[in-house]
């Protein structure tokens, strides 16, 4: 890594958006619920990803459909981008109809050598304010990776826990992936271009969005407890690809829930924790 890339640490940008009810209603429909949210209702946790969206002209997109690096995000040379994980604190509810300000800051840039090659982790801190009050704090981990070698062995994922107290099966469809990509204006081709996903990035098929997996996990915890957690964290561990069914699962701990997503082969796709 060059010092030039590390000079991005500390860069900030400010966004403003109004939390309109329509995207939230469309999100309800995307996950199979009747769309009934309205102004004044609390925005469910992690649904802030439907707002503060950026649209770059097609001519400045990279090969994967993401905007080229070097604007707000540092110009990391590694070609593959993934959402590695995140940590959240929910201070005050965001409500539909609110005018919200988001301040995003590059917190860290770290290079590592992994089993699959070089990695670069970029951590971005987001703070969302409504009515002058801090409502949500998020730390967002992005990982950049090398392209997989044609003869590279497939990594062996860890097995998911087998002691779930509650479990729900998710059946991904192309329509679900399309809708979530559209709602978040996410052009990443791994979610809709199966040839690109397989031939360029080495997946088994279309990839289920990591943020959507995390959203389903925190939603499961919120429904089980009957309220929004005060904190939530997640880490992506192995991809959900090929539109195969998977499970969101969990078990209760003291004032908390341990959560995870289990692939259809029993592998651990994502781990998470909700604190109440």
What is the gist of this entry?
The protein is an alpha+beta fold and 276 residues long.
Structure description:
With 276 residues, the chain is an alpha+beta fold. Helix content is 17%, strand content 34%. It has a 10-stranded antiparallel beta sheet, with helices on one face. Helix 2 (21-30) packs antiparallel against helix 3. The model has no long low-confidence stretch (mean pLDDT 94).
The major pleated sheet works out as: 10 strands, antiparallel
Uncertain runs with pLDDT below 50, 5 residues or more? Answer: none
Structural class: alpha+beta
Mean pLDDT: 94
Helical residues, percent: 10-25%
Shape: globular
What fraction of residues sit in β-strands?
A: 25-35%
Strand order of the largest sheet: 1-3-4-5-2-7-10-9-8-6
Query: Any idea what the radius of gyration is?
Result: 18 Å
The counted number of beta strands is 10
Order of helices and strands: HEHEEEEEHHHEEEE
Give the termini distance in whole angstroms: 39 Å
- Give the helix tally: 5
Keywords:
5 helices; ten-stranded antiparallel sheet; alpha+beta; single chain
List the helices and strands and how they pair.
Blueprint: H1 3-6, E1 12-18, H2 21-30, E2 80-90, E3 99-114, E4 117-130, E5 133-145, E6 166-170, H3 174-183, H4 194-199, H5 210-225, E7 231-236, E8 246-253, E9 256-262, E10 268-275
Antiparallel strand pairs: 1-3, 2-5, 2-7, 3-4, 4-5, 6-8, 7-10, 8-9, 9-10
């Amino acid at each position: 890594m060059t010092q030039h890339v590390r000079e991005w640490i500390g860069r900030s940008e400010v966004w403003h958006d109004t939390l309109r009810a329509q995207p939230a209603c469309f999100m309800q429909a995307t996950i199979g619920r009747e769309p009934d949210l309205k102004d004044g209702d609390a925005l469910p946790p992690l649904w802030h990803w439907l707002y503060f969206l950026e649209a770059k002209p097609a001519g400045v997109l990279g090969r994967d459909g993401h905007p080229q690096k070097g604007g707000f995000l540092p110009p990391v040379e590694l070609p593959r981008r993934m959402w590695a994980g995140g940590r959240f604190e929910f201070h005050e509810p965001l409500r539909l109809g609110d005018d919200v300000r988001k301040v995003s800051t590059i917190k860290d840039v770290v290079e590592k050598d992994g089993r699959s090659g070089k990695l670069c982790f970029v951590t971005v801190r987001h703070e969302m304010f409504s009515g002058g009050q801090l409502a949500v704090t998020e730390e967002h981990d992005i990982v950049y990776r090398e392209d997989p070698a044609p003869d590279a062995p497939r990594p062996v994922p860890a097995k998911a826990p087998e002691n779930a107290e509650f479990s729900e099966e998710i059946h991904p469809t192309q329509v679900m992936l399309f809708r979530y990509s559209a709602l978040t204006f996410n052009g990443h081709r791994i979610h809709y271009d199966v040839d690109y996903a397989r031939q360029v990035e080495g997946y088994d098929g279309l990839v289920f969005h990591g943020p959507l997996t995390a959203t389903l996990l925190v939603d499961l915890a919120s429904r089980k407890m009957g309220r929004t957690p005060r904190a939530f964290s997640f880490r992506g561990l192995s991809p959900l690809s090929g539109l195969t069914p998977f499970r969101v699962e969990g078990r209760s701990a003291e004032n908390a829930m341990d959560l995870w997503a289990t692939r259809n082969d029993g592998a651990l796709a994502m781990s998470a924790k909700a604190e109440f």
